[in-house]
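Can't paste images in this forum, so I'm doing it all in text. The chain is below; anyone willing to post the predicted structure tokens underneath?
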Amino acid sequence: MAEVRISRRRLLTGLVAGATLPVLSHAAFAAAPKIKVAGVHSDPIANAWNARLHEALQQAAKAGRIDYVFSESVSNTDYPRVLREYANQGVQLIVGESYGTERDSRAVAKDYPKIGFLMGSSGGPAGGNFGVFGTWNHEAAYLTGILAGHMTKTGKLGAVGGYPIPEVNRLINAYRLGASEAKPGLVFQAGFINTWFDPPKAKEAALAQIDSGCDILFGERIGTADGAKMRGKLAIGSLMDYMPRYPGTVFSNAQWYFDPILEAVLADVAAGKPVGQDYSPYSMMAHGGNDITFDSSLVPADALKQMEARRTAIRSGAFKVPVNDAKPV
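Text version of the structure:
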């Protein structure tokens, strides 16, 4: 299986070359005291989104740049308590998500103005210490759609998402847009399982879409590819690389890299700068925050040609993938 992926070295090189906001060099980090960071995950770290954060934080800890502790599977009702516990322990930065606890998480941050909070959020930053970021891998999702448009045999494409929040909606809408540009007249289905981590439920949603005629599924949630594999159909992964786990089933991924966001916020913490800002732009392909990976043995040459042309245009800034945060219908 031939896989095309972006390496960490290439990612960081691209970030330094393309970023418009400053990031701290590794040499500067090496000379600075370790930053104390806590991760608070509302789902298991096996969940794709949480895994991307956890892996990046683990790498920073392994490199000796941060001291990292974390909690996983923290319920929404317990989330504020865990945030306060870490804040009282003297951490400098707390990384997590506030999608289900916006009001409470922001209230906790307001009570600890000297501690930085970096939260996945659909809202904006607050005060000087509540920073936000979105999972913006819609550019890569658009590119996977181009491949799917070329490869579908039934003309029906599906997608399984968690909740219909803006960050998820834009992925599915971008995927649809890319597919429609490759092959106009396609029929789409989108289903939401209303949870972030329930692989069996995602599998059942995938099977339902396959039974209705969809032959390629965009798996925003883990478990989608299980349904595709069971029925001999194709799937696309999101956030992380699913090709090794589902060879012959997952032919492409809309990958997201938390590293550029983490680099930026750690630089601000180390420099004593406020982190109450929106770090979402570091998710863009120009900063190495997202990209497509694919199995070239499964994707036809004409599909790759169109996709690579768009990929080059996105990286250069000549083409911008339209953002549509409306719930897919």
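The longest strand covers residues 250-256. Residues 138-255+290-316 form a domain with the Rossmann fold fold (CATH 3.40.50.2300).
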